[in-house]
Structure formats: structure tokens, C-alpha cells
Amino acid sequence: MKSFSVLVFVASSFFLTSGQTPSGTPAGPSSQTSARIKNFGSSLQKYEKKRKQTANLNAKNDPLKSIDNKTDDDEVIKIETGLVLHDLLVSDRAGNVVTQLKGSDFLLLEDQVPQSIEVFAASENSRIPRSIVLVIDTSLLQFPFLKMSTDAAKTLVDKLRPDDEMAIVTADLILHSDFTADKTLLKATLNEVEKRGIEYASWYRRGARKNDQGYEHAVNIGRGGQFETLLAVLNEMFDDKRKQRVIIFQGDGGHMIWLKPDKNLPYPVSHTTRMNSGMKYSGESAIKKFGFGEIEEAIEVSRVTIYSVIPGIRFFGLPKRERANRARISWAKVNEAFGWKTDYPAEMTRMFEDREENVRTAGQAAMFKVAELSGGNTAVMEKPEDAGRIYADILGVIESRYVIGYYPTDGVPSERRRSVKVEVRGRPDYTVTTRSHYILK
User: What is the pLDDT, as a whole number, of residue 242?
Assistant: First the structure.
């Protein structure tokens, strides 16, 4: 009974975040052998050495470069030295996206000091090339959403502009395809990612869960989780300052409970939840060497816009009683996915359901928070068939955003966090969504 309990606690807490095949061999086209693919995740080593070294990352965020203020249709905006760019979305009180605004309509404050907007770009009449990274969780619990999600991502690939580029990462810290504009290659990579998830699900369900191999696999894959992968992407992927930087981040966020506790954590995780999720078996070593504060700082340094996609039942933002009701449904789905028994003693069932509620709520809170910090947004994919709509909405939002550029009054790179506030002049009924802080390095 003890070994089974270990597997239940550990496997469900790590949520099988990698979905990797039994061999552990990264999938993807064999031609993808760039140094970045081979070394992906190397920036995380710095957190093992010294927690305070959060900003000196492989991305080497030089000051952003500026863009020519041109508005001809389909003209690629060129980047030059010195300018800071922010993208933003404007909506009215009904939530409708507002387009057709001009640069003179905006008021921009940095650290409460008005800034002169030198460049303004609206999607419908000018554009900046985009670098998009898709981070997708292929774990067993996410398997029901995998096919429709990869199909939706292929539709997004079809709509990329000729000067856009995209990279594909899975949430077990594997970069499958570095940035490329080759749509055929991107679709082939998505096919491999889907195939990999199918192979792992088949392997697990054939009986690996019933022996020590299944237990060891559940433990090992917990070492590379969703937020480690996000942090590596933020640190390492966006060294081209000529393009808008976007992350589509799909996962349930459950790995958040293993982050090092800090004051930035968006949702409290109790010691009891950690213990009931496997810490009693794996020990304090299961806790990561970085906390949510490091993720927040990496977002501010990279100035990436994150669009979070959460597959599964929604918990975050709901009343406690409703979350408890949903936890019963969610725990039943976990048992179904892993093929576990369901006739637990009543006390153990309540413990599992409490843990499910806390972990799911905490994970979703983290997913919402990373999007909010970056000026992006979040969608909950409660049904697999929602994937097409959600990915289409993300692309629509990306193409509806404005880009503004300015030379900061204080343009000296430093570790200092700078506040950003953007308003539409004379329109208090309009809401501007953008990042609230950034770090100029």
C-alpha cells in the first residue's frame, strides 16, 4: 500500500509534466541541432549557485532598439538603437477591442514622468515582425487536450506572416524547434510533439504505472516542470530585439507548488499541501532553487507578452464551495487518467480532494499572474474543442495590439524596476492592458 501511495502522491503532484517517452529522447526533426536546442535550460544552473543572480541571463537583454515611424501597409518596421517598445491592447467598458486610435491619443508615463512617444504602430496599417514561442504541456493529464491544441497551433502557424518566426517547446524543458519561419517544419514538429504524447500515454497505460518503473518515471519527470521551462524561455530565447516577443504558455500550472516560497507567490501553498503532494517522500530537495520572484523579474527583463492557456476545469476566481465541488470532479478525472482505484477510505478521499483544490487553484493563479505581469491575458480551455477558438482569439488579440516606442527620460540601463502607465487621452471609459513594470538592461 505504501508504494502505491507514493506513486499517487508524487505522480499526481508533478502532473506528469513532461509527457516524455520512456526513452527520454527529445522528439522533433533531426535537423534541429542548434546550440540553443542542445543547451536549452542551461540558464537555470545559475539559480543553483546563487539565488540573487536572477538577471544575468543568457538572453543578454541589451537596450531595445527603435523603429521607424512608418505606416504603409505590410511594411516591416525596422529597429534601430535606443528605443523602448511596449505593446498594448485597448478595450471599452463592454470588453470590445478598440482600434483606429492614433499615437497622439495616448499618454505614456514612466515612473510617473510623461514620455514623448516617438513611434506608434497599429496592426491594421503597419507591423513589426514577431518571435513567438509555444510552450505546451504534454503530460498524461493534458492528453485529452493535446490533439486539438496542436491542430489549433497548426492553424496559427498557417497565419504567420513571412517575417514572423516561431519556436516550439514542451513543458519538460525540451526545445523541439528553434525559431524558424518554415511552416512545414513547424507543423512537422507539432506532429512529433503530439506523437510523443500519444506514445507516452500508451506506454503508461500498458502497465508502467503498476511497477517501480512507473514510480521512478513519475519522480524523474517532475525535475523539469512548466515554470522551469517558462523561465528558460524567458532567459534564453529572446535575443533578437528587432521583433515583438510573444509566449503562448499552455499548461495547468500545477508545478507551481514546488517553487521556492517567496513573497511574490500569487497564491499561498500550505506545508500540508506540499507534504500531501509528495514532499514527505521526496524531501525538501523537491523544492526548486527559484521562486515566483525570479519568474516575475525575468518577465520584466525580457518584456515578453504571455498568453496563458489553461486546459481543464476552472478553479481560480471561484468561491471556496464551488472549488470544492469541482475538486471532486477533477480528482475523479485524475483517477481515470492514471487508471487508479477509486474506493479509497472517506478520510483519504477528502484529503485527495482538498489537495486537488489547493494545487489546481494555486497553479491557475500562477498562470493568470504571469500573463497579467506581461500585459497578456489568460483563457481556460475546459473542453478540448475550445482549442481552435482560443488560439484564434490569441492571434486576433496579438494583431489588435498597438506598439508604442519612446526614449526613456532616464535611458541608463540598470537593475531598477520602472513603472509604466498608458492612458487614452480623454477616454476614462477605455482600459489599456500592458505591462505595469519593466527593467531596462
Answer: 66
Instruction: Tell me the per-residue pLDDT of 228-239, one tens digit each, with 9 for 90 and over.
Output: 999 999 999 998
Domain of residue 430, residue span: 70-116+404-439
Give me the amino acid identity at 430.
Y
The Cα–Cα gap between 312 and 124 comes to 34
> Mean of the pLDDT values across residues 308-326?
96
Is residue 123 one of the residues assigned to a domain?
A: no
Residues 86, 434: contact at Cβ < 8 Å?
A: yes
What CATH number does the domain containing 345 carry?
3.40.50.410
**Whole-model pTM?**
0.84
Same-domain status, 100 and 195: no
How confident is the prediction for the chain on average, in pLDDT?
82
